Amino acid sequence: xxxxxxxxxxxxxxxxxxxxxxxxxxxxxxxxxxxxxxxxxxxxxxxxxxxxxxxxxxxxxxxxxxxxxxxxxxxxxxxxxxxxxxxxxxxxxxxxxxxxxxxxxxxxxxxxxxxxxxxxxxxxxxxxxxxxxxxxxxxxxxxxxxxxxxxxxxxxxxxxxxxxxxxxxxxxxxxxxxxxxxxxxxxxxxxxxxxxxxxxxxxxxxxxxxxxxxxxxxxxxxxxxxxxxxxxxxxxxxxxxxxxxxxxxxxxxxxxxxxxxxxxxxxxxxxxxxxxxxxxxxxxxxxxxxxxxxxxxxxxxxxxxxxxxxxxxxxxxxxxxxxxxxxxxxxxxxxxxxxxxxxxxxxxxxxxxxxxxxxxxxxxxxxxxxxxxxxxxxxxxxxxxxxxxxxxxxxxxxxxxxxxxxxxxxxxxxxx
Length: 416
Hints:
The chain folds into two domains: 295 residues, Aminopeptidase (3-Layer(aba) Sandwich), CATH 3.40.630; 114 residues, Alpha-Beta Plaits (2-Layer Sandwich). The protein contains eleven helices and 16 strands. The longest helix has 21 residues.
């Protein structure tokens, strides 16, 4: 193995101490003091590898290994260091630390690439603090939407203020943009966050594409009343309507048993939230994903029909706000070929599989060719302190990434 597996393991152990939750969990919100601490640690490793580092105005940490021909579009790789509030040690972190290890190995081998390499820890991939993710990766491409800076977290802190507190200047976003054509390709290593590789006893997988996520915020409005006196037949109970919609979503998403469609309601707020008051207002999120856009569109239409019917039955009004909508994005064939070749060199039988979760690579796919390497995680558990990937598997992933980078540096897509 060319990469230093012991050093990589030490880096994971050190990073896991920042925002540590219990024995194995992580709570490292975006644009927080703990993420800044994580950036400082990762930056020290980048600098030790000969990279210059900076935090741009979107809150991204960027390590840059200057090529001998800096005018060439950059080879970019990375992931994120922010976590879910009840997260694990490897989600996102694997992509950043393995990328740092790949660059460190390149420098230690005395390789001087013509093309500049950048390793990025993107800001707010997770999206839970401000209810919209992939902020940093969309930001550098000029793909932010109106009103994103005004989104507030549960404490009332806006994203704009959080960026300023982090040392960024939202008024200077233009200084941090990547012009069209300035990124040669993007590579992201990530734990699978699903059970396919674990069940197949395969440490490494090659991603074929990323499912298209549709995110809604749904608000139902009924009528509050005394829980002891309003007869059941005339109640306008918003929570009952929400419960039926949740069940309808599950039925819609599972109507084709073997399809990879998934539907989730992950958060819910009930007003006035008193045990003896009929719920008047319920706000909840919907997450619908599929690799097949036509099927997802069909299911979206079915869900809208169900919401209309259920609210009519219970005499509720409703609103649907679309927070995120992306079609499935497929990896570049030429990059997949390189990754498969690297796996073959290591005698790894690496299957191709789709990604249900979205990643920063999805945002980059709108600007450049991309590919992803998946690393097996135990029982497919993620977004949970029980999330686990072995250091042996992670080192294998870093080795595949290292070899892939070397090949990308040697070839252009039209030469393959």
